[in-house]
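Researcher: I'm preparing a figure for a lab meeting and need a structural model of a single chain. I don't have an experimental structure, so a prediction will have to do for now. The sequence is pasted below. Please return the structure as tokens so I can convert it later.
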Amino acid sequence: MRHVYECPLRWADLDLQGHVNNVVYVDYLQEARVDLLRIHAPAARPDDLAEGVVVVRHEVTYRASLQFRFRPVRIECWVTEVRAASFTMAYEVFHDDPDEPGQRRVYLRATTVLTPYVFAEERPRRIAPEERAMLAQFLEPVDDPVDRVRLAAVPQEHAVHYPVHVRFSDVDVYGHVNNVKYFEYFQEARIRLHAGLFRGLEGIEDLHLVVAQTDVDYRVPILFRPEPYDCWSRVARVGERSMTLESEICDGDVVLSRARVVMVFVDVHTGRAVAPGPAYRERLLTAAAAGSG
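Model: Understood. Here is the structure written out token by token.
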């Protein structure tokens, strides 16, 4: 069984190209997840999973751009794995094709690893039997589960620094920065890296970068405070038409979160993936070589 959530779109969700910003999708996933866990919560624990879980990892694959519509986008969500103290949910964000019944236009697929959490004691807990029974209703085990490897550390001496200032509105009722906001922090750091990397290059207006994949590991909660945290980002790999960036948010020597983002170069006129020009590629390769050295 799968749960379907009708997610309304907001005009403020759009980026400069008129598409739903890649960060906003994670907010949609959160809304769908909470809707499932709240509607189907066991009577003995009505709010424990809906409001008492923390995200351990997000893996988000962007399939197509979503433009603003007055009708909601549909989000199908289900469970792929249940362990002693964690469970994994999968999502598909789509619109039904009005011209072909049974077909859908998929904008995004994602998975989220979650663990129940006792916020009053700042500790994870095991999944209760009644919660396990509820999650089992939506369980579709994957045939070939992915072996999730922790994201790599970012060498700071070859990375671009971005100070992460936490806003009061970033924090949830438990005093932690909401998992969605991490995507915003990594996006801001990525823009800072791009600004420096491509400064002075000609023809930059004809080339856009779009996000194809984002993986985020959550390690230690980020809390509200006046002092900024440190985000370090680097070019980790350069492909023919894409590049991979790695980032981490730190508090001194403590790593709070890590991210890996695959970005594709797109021609603004055709919308197709293209290879960056020689000047772009040279700077990318130089940055990647410095980060791996």
